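Students often ask why we bother encoding 3D structure as a string. The short answer is that it lets us treat folding as translation between two languages. Here is a chain of 99 residues written in the first language.
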Amino acid sequence: MPKVTFLPMNLVCDVKKGESLLDIALQFNIPIQHACGGFCACTTCHVRVQAGEDHLSPMEEDEIDRVERATGSAKNSRLGCQAQVQGDVTVEVVNLDEF
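And here it is in the second language, the structure alphabet:
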């Protein structure tokens, strides 16, 4: 069972393969923003992958276009709604709701 570590809260979650980072975050009450409801129509679920990038689904064109417009976008940026977990990964949530 893959493990996802969410930073900065350092919460480790056991997850099922194929779940999106956004769905996992919501399931474990991680305060991640998601204005469009997970339809790749915004960038509020922006995360930066700190480890395990190769354990996420490949980026598709829609996600690439959105990530390029995200505030603070970096080479390791992904959208939580689009990145599906295939193995252990560590991500930093960029747009935290207050917790």
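Translate back mentally: The CA atoms of residues 48 and 74 lie 7 Å apart. Keep this in mind for the problem set.
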